[in-house]
Amino acid sequence: MKTLFTFLLLVFVTSVHAQDKLNLFHVVDSDTKLPVPSVSVSIIKARLAINTENDGIFSIPGNLSTMRDTIIFAAQNYLAFKFPIRELEERDSIQLIRVAFLAPPKQSVSKLDTLLNDFDSNDVEHYAGVNERATSFEWLQLAQRFDSPKIGGVLKNVSIYRLVFTLNGEGQANYAATEYTKFRVRIYGLDSLTLGPGRDLCSKVIEAKSNGRRRIKIDLTNLNIVIPDPEFFVAVEWVRDFHNMGYVRLNNADGLTTDRVINYRPAIGISPIKTNNLNIWGMNFRRAWLPYSYFSPDFTDLAIKAEVSK
């Protein structure tokens, strides 16, 4: 059962006496009533987010009826469920509704491939996902935008470069040890209104794991991910659980003291090549996509490569 969410929420609950009550919930599929694994749960005002374990169980301490915040449950292939926390008072389960996935027509994979966003990996020196000056990294996903070489092309593989060494509590790399990480890869089409990530182009949950590799290459050939738009996005979705948890120190406003805060792996590399457009988008705790401008104007792209068949 997930206990990290309970631990984090102890900071959120304002009344010590209210913490005596523990509210337990199951996140399940609305049709099968089976657990939905690794659900992203975020609380907006409290700026907290976590993933459930595979059993779909999580808990919140305190008197829910007194809490004035909004909670969001989201999982790939399901509609996001958003409502005030106080409405959880009479519940013991959250039922998520599965979304029907309409896959583009199957395409043949050509031998003529195009590598997008190429760069020298030896020049990658900056990383997203650690912290942002004096604030925690508070993004659920980061996405890299690509121009498709051909509408109807098939995405064959992606290569993601990350910080391979463990961070110590000061937010610096500890070169004595490599870090374990797992994360999910999401492939999105173009939202014609926001020009950011749109609908999922793959219904399969793509989970990547690494114990010591800086470059993580994911073979997607068997998934037949067809690119239906002139642009598409490859996103890293953080799995915010015990396995990916670490700590960094952030400077306080006084400039003299620091706070030790929770941080989640991986730290994703920033491409050393500057382009004419900002191609990085981030999903915040409200699950809204926004341009991610922290490294601009010096850097414009994530250290993610994609290979597409034409």
Report on this model:
It is globular and about 60 Å long. The chain has one helix at residues 4-12; strands at residues 22-29, 40-43, 48-51, 57-61, 70-74, 81-84, 93-96, 113-116, 127-128, 131-132, 135-136, 141-147, 154-161, 165-167, 173-178, 181-190, 197-200, 206-210, 215-219, 225-226, 231-238, 245-251, 258-264, 268-269, 280-283, 289-291, 304-309. The model is unreliable at 1-18 (pLDDT under 50). A hairpin with a 6-residue loop joins strand 22 and strand 23 (258-264). The protein folds into two domains: 4-96, Carboxypeptidase-like, regulatory domain (Immunoglobulin-like), CATH 2.60.40; 113-309. Strands 12, 16, 17, 18, 21, 25 and 26 form a seven-stranded antiparallel β-sheet that branches. Strands 8, 13, 19, 20 and 27 form a five-stranded antiparallel β-sheet that branches. The longest helix is centred in the first third of the chain and has 9 residues, at 4-12. The N and C termini lie far apart (46 Å). The protein has 310 residues and is mainly β.
